[in-house]
Structures are given as C-alpha cells and as structure tokens.
Design goal:
InterPro entries: A/G_AdeGlyc_MutY, DNA_glycosylase, HhH-GPD_domain, HhH_base_excis_C, HhH_motif, MIG/MutY, MutY_C, NUDIX_hydrolase-like_dom_sf. This protein is an alpha+beta fold. The protein contains 15 helices and seven strands. The radius of gyration is 24 Å and the shape is elongated.
Length: 348
C-alpha cells in the first residue's frame, strides 16, 4: 500500500464523528471551517450547532444583525472571523442568490476565506482535487518525508502544497484531505506522539532518524505584547452602569466593554483614583472607588497578554441610558468581561 491508501484506511477506522462530515452542504462546511480556524474541535462544535440552529441557511445569517452574530460568537475569540462570516453571508445571499462558489479559485474571492478554507470547501462540497495544507498537514508530511524546510516561509507552503497534490487521489480528494488533517490531529500530534502504534512507524523518516520532536521546522517567533487594562465599572444610585463599544480597529472590534483606563503597567488605587476623579469621571460626584478583586486577570491572545483589573466606581448621580446586569448579558462582550458580569462580581 502507498502513503495515501494507508492514511485513508487509518482514517476510516479512527475518524471522529463530526457533524460537518455528514454533509456536502457548502454553507455548513464553510461555517465549520471558519469556526475551526485557530480553534479546537471540542471548543468549536457547540458554536457550530448554535449557529446552524439560529441561522439554518445563509439567508438567515445574512439577515441577522452584526450584534446578533457577535453575541452568538462570544467566547470563540478572533472576532474578525465572525465579522467576515457575516459580511460573506450577505454577499452570498444578496449577490449570489444564496449559492456558494463551486470552485477553489472563486471561493478564494470570499472575504475571510484563505487558501486552506477554500481548498476544504472545494474538496468537501464539490470534490475538487485541491489539497488542504494546514498545521496538521505540515507536521505529517514534514515528519514522514523528513522535510526540514521552514514552514514560516511562503516558499515552503508552495513546496508542501505541491507534495500534497501529488499524494492526493484525484478520484476522491475529500477523504484524503479529511484523513491527513485527522491524522495530524489525533495521531501525529505536536508533542510526544505515540509513534510505536503509528501505521507509518516502519516508513516514517523522522522516526527512523529520531527527528520527530524537531519537525516541522518553524523559525518565526510570535512577539507577545503586554497591555494593562483597568476597567471602570460605574454604578449609579439605581445600580445601573455604563458601557461603550470598541469601534477602533484592533482586538474586540465592535464588542462592548466598560470604560477603559489603559496604563503602561499594573497600577494601584492612588493612580486609578486620581484618573477617575480628575479626568475620566470628573463630571460625576464620586462616592467610592474599590478594586473588585485583588488578583489581576491575565487574558492571553495570540499576540497580546492583557493584564486586567476591574474597579467599582460608585457615583451620586443617575447615569443617562444606564444599563442593569440583565441588559448587559444581552450584548456581545469579550469573554473575559462577560465572565466577570456573569459571576456578578459587578456587585463587588
């Protein structure tokens, strides 16, 4: 048996029972692929069910408000995916009469759809012979064929794509693409794979050369920026509070948050008190200021670590258009803020 046949046989015996594998509907496959970008299957699956229930067709998704989409997406992270998802649904519904493009090249033109996602939809929905190349595929092929090319390089992406295309059975590309991704997710995992039970343990070059732990090669390091957020929970005499929408480009675009004091380091009561009384809320009569927790919450994003403190600021006035906790829970927030509200620490 060759590589492809062994791989597919393994897949048929070991594949997970996932809902998007039971359909060729491009809408469902597109949804799942967007959700699974930078997200584990276990985390993404509840969102897939929630979206397909709330928005059974691309028209339903297109007709929703962005706020509805962001709220349902809440907690999945990388919110630009949700915004692009919504915009693309509107394009498909309104410009393409609800029919998704049926070729790899046309799918690439959709907002938020890159090479990998386009290849997945094209092969899974339309059986087009185009290979998928993601982190799992890089890992499997680099180890099996002992390829030391730096996967951070664009030239390497082309190299792996050409190799995957050679291995791809043209009569059934979908099952091969599913198989190699599943193999990377379940068997040829990043750290400490169980090589003795692997179906390729007699032919994998990395195993033979004791190079499994060093492949694939990736030289590019992600530079992490530390940011320091102080969220100010204003509370008026009615128990209502104030929020704002993040309209600037960057993290959490179009999500809601409490008034924010961003600093260059973790700060204490004196600094926050001075900023609140003399600048941020100088038009209110401040009754008290207190930190809601002695522990700073560290929220890790791909390129940023957010050090978050929450401060309760009680005032003597009534906030115009103030919101209560029930109102807040209906709006899309970054999950770290929503969890704070959910735990009712707002009443600290």
């Amino acid at each position: 048996m060759n590589f492809s046949n062994i791989l597919i046989k393994w897949y048929l015996q070991n594949k997970r029972d996932l809902p998007w594998r039971k359909t060729t509907n491009p809408y469902h496959i597109w949804l799942s692929e967007i959700m699974l970008q930078q997200t584990r299957v276990a985390q993404g699956m509840p969102y897939f069910f929630a979206f397909t229930e709330e928005f059974p067709t691309v028209f339903d998704l297109a007709n929703a408000s962005e706020e509805q989409v962001l709220k349902l997406w809440q907690g999945l992270g990388y919110y630009s995916r949700a915004r692009n998802l919504h915009k693309t649904s509107q394009y498909v519904a309104n410009e393409l009469n609800g029919v998704f493009p049926d070729t790899y090249k046309e799918l690439l033109k959709l907002k938020g759809v890159g090479e990998y996602t386009a290849a997945a939809i094209a092969s899974f929905s339309y059986n087009e012979a185009v290979p998928v190349v993601d982190g799992n595929v890089f890992r499997v092929l680099s180890r099996y064929f002992d390829i030391e090319s730096d996967i951070a390089s664009p030239a390497t992406k082309k190299e792996f794509t050409e190799l995957a295309h050679e291995l791809l059975p043209k009569e059934n590309p979908a099952i091969f693409n599913q198989a190699i991704m599943e193999f990377g997710a379940l068997q040829c995992v990043p750290k400490s794979p169980d090589c003795p039970v692997c179906v390729f343990n007699d032919s994998c070059l990395a195993l033979q050369k004791k190079k499994v732990s060093v492949l694939p090669v990736k030289s590019k390091k992600i530079k992490v920026t530390n940011r320091f957020f102080n969220y100010l929970i204003l509370e008026d005499v009615l128990g209502n509070t104030l929020i704002q929408k993040r309209t600037a480009k960057g993290i959490w675009h179009n999500l809601y948050e409490f008034p924010l004091l961003e600093t260059t380091d973790i700060v204490g009561f004196d600094f926050v008190s001075n900023a609140v009384q003399n600048d941020i809320f100088s038009t209110y009569t401040i009754l008290s200021i207190e930190e809601c927790s002695e522990t700073t919450v560290i929220h890790k994003l791909s390129h940023q670590h957010l050090h978050i403190q929450f401060w309760k600021v009680k005032i003597n006035e009534i906030i115009v258009n103030g919101l209560n906790t029930t109102d807040l829970k209906n709006l899309p927030f970054p999950i770290v803020i929503y969890n704070f509200i959910e735990k009712q620490e707002i009443n600290c």
